[in-house]
Amino acid sequence: MTFSIHCHWQCKIKMTSLLLFVLTLSSSVRDIFTYKHVIFMHGVMSDPSEFDNLHTFIEKDHPGTNVTVIDAYNGYSSLDNLWSQANDILPIVTKVMQENTGGVHLLCFSQGGLLCRAIIEMSGPRHNVDTFISLSSPQAGQYGDTQVLHILFPYYVKRSLYELFYSRIGQHISIGNYWNDPLHQQLYLEYCNFLPVINNQVVSNSSQAYKSSFARLKNLVLIGGPDDDVIMPWQSSHFATSDGNDTIIPMKDQEWYKNDSFGLRTLDERGSVHTYTVPGHKHYDWHRNYTVFTNYIAPWLT
């Protein structure tokens, strides 16, 4: 009888220990497979509703993912100077990063991709961005006639827009901050106060900090395609530019890549740059298309 009682308590102890082990294991597995927080930044002349479809896709494929949609500089206010926008949005992103010590993902569309790049560079060693997904964003600047430009600036074509954008007044307009006219590079470097700065083509007191911060990314995902009717040249979404005569200068032939001015070459040589060329999608299809999401975005939102 004594032996039976002793065995009974031993079994209880073993079962309790086993239960605690299972609960601990479950917690550990849950922590490992919890999806990182996603921050979304919309494009020019848009607002948080631009994320609606992507949010639905994420909820379907990655249930339980927490998201923050930046609700700032919507509509016409998205045309404000990009430094003003970046400085106001930085505290919002910083707060989310501080609340998610395991890291976050940035998913940024069109002009929003340039804002996100600036925010990463401005964040310094405190940023914990795991993956930055640049969805059809003019990372190497914009130079082309588009419907949006015709509506906003009906009296200009691409070869004359530098007259507006490369001026003190023009630099109050966000598009002017990344207008990269290959035929007027000296004016671009002299007047354009955003893209040349985050590219470290114009040296500033923050140049080294910008480079170090950007190089801390684990993954940079660049998505674009030849049927995009807004980003021009469309290869800008892959850090390529035009020479002004229909010849594309690819990312690796850019001086700021060769010099590793802002850390892009460091990321690339580390195998952290992932480039996707996806035909068949116009500009405002990217964030609405489930196939684009499942094939090129979802695999990185882990």
Structural account:
The structure is a single chain. This protein is α/β, with parallel strands linked by helices. It has 2 domains: 1-33; 35-300, Alpha/Beta hydrolase fold, catalytic domain (Rossmann fold). The protein has helices spanning 2-33, 52-61, 82-99, 111-123, 147-152, 162-165, 185-191, 195-198, 207-214, 255-258, 264-269, 290-297; strands spanning 37-41, 67-69, 104-109, 129-135, 219-224, 241-242, 248-249, 273-277. It has a 6-stranded parallel β-sheet. Helix 3 crosses helix 4 (111-123) and helix 4 crosses helix 9. The termini are far apart.
Keywords:
302 residues; 2 domains; globular; Rossmann fold; alpha/beta; disordered N terminus; single chain
Would you give the CATH topology of the largest domain? Rossmann fold
Question: What does the largest sheet look like?
Answer: 6 strands, parallel
How many structural domains are formed by the residues? 2
Indicate the multimeric state: single chain
Instruction: Tell me the radius of gyration.
Output: 23 Å
The SSE order reads HEHEHEHEHHHHHEEEHHEH
**What is the first-to-last residue Cα distance?**
55 Å
Spans with pLDDT under 50 lasting ≥5 residues? 1-5, 22-32
Q: What's the CATH H-level superfamily name of the largest domain? A: Alpha/Beta hydrolase fold, catalytic domain
Shape: globular
Helix content: 25-40%
Tally of contiguous helical segments: 12
What structural class do the secondary elements suggest? alpha/beta
Strand content: 5-15%
Give the CATH level 1 class of the largest domain. Answer: Alpha Beta
Look at the structure and give the mean pLDDT. Answer: 91
